[in-house]
Write a structure and sequence with these properties.
Number of helices: 12
Strand order of the largest sheet: 1-2-3-4-5
Number of strands: 8
Structural class: alpha+beta
Order of helices and strands: HHHHHHEEHHHEEEHHEEEH
Largest sheet: 5 strands, mixed
Helix content: 25-40%
């Protein structure tokens, strides 16, 4: 196997170089599968720093190698040349190619495992009436080799980033406020360099209540995705109007149901609800498409009268709005 030919460098008939390592061969096969621009030299393929280093590993000094390989290339067949030049450099090249592959290939998905915790107030063994308990399930990210990127992704989905309080800050607050009873999460999407999560929060005060928080992260950068990362900026107004149409239909459907059941919850509850561009921030990404969320804010006593607040669109429906080369551009069928 000619290593130099595989990676696009001139051939010096070094087929005798021992490259039987499966991992090494797989590295070269993966390198070829990246479909990087051909004919632009090794530095253009792998980046100047890695390309220069790898070039140095194999050629060391082009003049020296050429001088050591005359027309018949007999010196390149000598055991001394193989042991002194080729084999040590092949080991270094393998490490550099591995690093190049890590740099070039984006993280498609991550591993999400749960961390469980519990806050308590009072002693449950004494059947105290004031005993309170909160159960928490928190996502922990792994599967990213770059520690800086891993930290960015973990911070993006952390309790501090999403709720403004860390786990320890929530714990310290619990004895005084103890509203929280449950904090959980759900993975909506974990592919194509996107991680999308929904947090569910439940609590108990005068009555039980709860809310959701939605977060989507670009696994290539660790940044939280915003509507302009998914959709054309000039199309956000049109997209908001499309969601608004579905929302008004949901409002009319709920009002009709209430009228049929002879329930009067007050017409004012349904007024002044409009889906604006700013409401596009509250979205979640799924394998099927994107769902936009709207909170009507109905009081607990009439919560059952609240219209549907989740409006889903397939990627095909969203195609006119999706940003070319944006975060979800490859998901359009």
């Amino acid at each position: 196997m000619n290593v130099l030919r595989v990676i696009g460098l001139p051939s010096y008939h070094l087929d005798h170089v021992s490259l039987q390592s499966v991992n090494y061969l797989q590295s070269f096969n993966r390198l070829r599968s990246l479909n990087l621009p051909a004919g632009q030299g090794l530095q253009a393929r792998l980046g100047s720093a890695i390309g220069s280093a790898l070039l140095g590993c194999f050629l060391i000094n082009p003049g020296t190698l050429q001088a050591a390989t005359p027309t018949d290339r007999s010196p390149a067949d000598s055991p001394a040349f193989r042991s002194r030049v080729l084999m040590p450099q092949a080991s270094i090249a393998q490490a550099l190619i591995t690093q190049a592959l890590i740099t070039q290939a984006p993280i498609a998905q991550v591993i999400v495992t749960e961390k469980r915790d519990r806050f308590t107030l009072g002693d449950p063994t004494r059947s105290e009436p004031g005993y309170r308990e909160a159960n928490l399930r928190i996502p922990v990210i792994s599967g990213i080799s770059d520690p800086t990127l891993l930290n960015k992704v973990q911070q993006a989905i952390s309790l501090k980033s999403v709720f403004g309080q860390s786990l320890e800050e929530m714990r310290a607050e619990f004895p005084e406020y103890h509203w929280l009873t449950r904090l959980d999460y759900q993975v909506n999407y974990n592919a194509n360099s996107i991680l999308d999560l929904t947090y569910f929060v439940e609590g108990l005060g005068a009555y039980p209540s709860g809310f959701e928080r939605h977060i989507a992260v670009d696994l290539k950068t660790g940044k939280v995705l915003r509507p302009h990362d998914l959709f054309k900026t000039q199309a956000l107004g049109s997209l908001a109007r499309r969601v608004e149409q579905k929302m008004q239909q949901a409002i009319q459907t709920k009002r009709a149901q209430l009228a049929q059941d002879n329930q009067d919850v007050g017409e004012e509850l349904f007024q002044n609800h409009r889906f604006r561009i700013r409401n596009l921030e509250n979205f979640s990404i799924t394998p099927e498409g994107v769902t936009f969320h709207y909170d009507y804010g109905f009081p607990h006593v009439v919560l059952a009268a609240e219209p549907e607040g989740k409006f889903s669109f397939t990627y095909a429906e969203l195609q006119p709005f999706i940003k070319p080369n944006g975060a979800i551009a490859t998901l359009v069928p």
